Amino acid sequence: MQKKNYELSAKLLRLANRGAHRAQERARRAGVPVTYAIGGKLIKVKL
Q: N or C: which end of the chain has fewer CB within 10 A?
C-alpha cells in the first residue's frame, strides 16, 4: 500500500510541475515578469 501512495504522489508532483511550467511559459509569452526566489531573495525577470 505504501508503494502505491508513493507512486500517486509522484504522479501528482509531475502534474503540478507541468502545470506550473505551462503557466510560466504563458506568462513569458505575454511579457509578464517572472519572479524567481534565489537564495531567499525575490528576483523579477522580464523575458
A: N
Residues 34/27, Cβ–Cβ less than 8 Å: yes
Residues 6+ apart with CB under 8 A from 11: none
- Checking if the pLDDT of 24 tops 70, the result is yes
Please count the residues of the chain: 47
Half-sphere exposure of 18 (CA within 13 A, CB side): 6
* Domain hosting residue 15, numbered range: 2-45
**What domain count does the chain have?**
1
35 near 42, Cβ under 8 Å? yes
Q: Is 31 left (phi over 0), alpha (psi -120 to 50) or beta?
A: left
